[in-house]
Design brief:
5% of the residues lie in helices and 36% in strands. By secondary structure, the protein is mainly beta. It has 1 helix and 10 strands, in the order E-E-E-E-E-H-E-E-E-E-E. It is globular. The strands form 3 sheets. Strands 1-4-8-6 form a 4-stranded antiparallel sheet. Strands 2-10-5-7 form a 4-stranded antiparallel sheet, with no helix packed on it. The protein has a two-stranded antiparallel sheet with strand order 3-9.
Length: 149
C-alpha cells in the first residue's frame, strides 16, 4: 500500500472536530465530517454545499476524490451531486461537499456527521494530440448500450 503525507489545515470553525481519518485499517476513503454551526435540512431533490472546516495541501501529481458514503446513499438517498468531486493539488481553500438528497424524506445534517469519504489518487496527465484518423476496433463508434445489458 502506497502512503503519502497530506497536510491538513484546521480552520477556526472546526476547532472541536476530529481530523479526517480512516474508519478501519482496510478503508480506502478517509471520512470527512460536516463543520456546520447548526443542523441543516436537506430536502428531497435539493443540493447543498457543506463545509468541512479543513483545507489541505496535496502533493503535485495527486488529486482528492470526494465520494458518497454508501450507508447514506442506501439508507437515505443522500449522495454527492458531482460524484466523484475532484480537488486539485493546487487548491488551498476549504474542502466542501456538495450533497444531493435523492431520497423521498428530509435528511438532517448535524455538526460532526460523517458526510463523505475522500480518496487520494495519483493522477496521469495526457498530452492531447490531434489526428485525422483513429485506429479501428470491433466496437467502432457504437455507443451507449451497444455491448448489451
Amino acid at each position: 500500500m502506497n502512503k503519502i503525507t497530506v497536510k491538513f489545515q484546521r480552520l477556526a470553525h472546526a476547532s472541536d472536530l476530529a481530523l479526517p481519518s480512516y474508519a478501519t485499517e482496510g478503508a480506502v476513503g478517509i471520512d470527512i465530517a460536516a463543520a456546520i454551526d447548526r443542523p441543516r435540512c436537506l430536502q428531497p431533490g435539493t443540493i447543498m454545499a457543506i463545509p468541512t472546516g479543513f483545507a489541505m495541501e496535496l502533493p503535485a501529481g495527486y488529486e482528492a476524490q470526494i465520494r458518497p458514503r454508501s450507508g447514506l446513499a442506501l439508507k437515505h438517498g443522500v449522495t454527492i451531486a458531482n460524484a466523484p468531486g475532484t480537488i486539485d493539488s493546487d487548491y488551498r481553500g476549504e474542502i466542501a461537499v456538495i450533497l444531493l438528497n435523492n431520497g423521498n424524506r428530509d435528511f438532517t445534517i448535524t455538526r460532526g456527521m460523517r458526510i463523505a469519504q475522500m480518496v487520494i489518487a495519483e493522477v496521469t496527465r495526457c498530452c492531447p494530440l490531434e489526428v485525422n484518423d483513429l485506429d479501428h476496433t470491433v466496437r467502432g463508434a457504437d455507443g451507449f448500450g451497444s455491448t448489451g445489458i
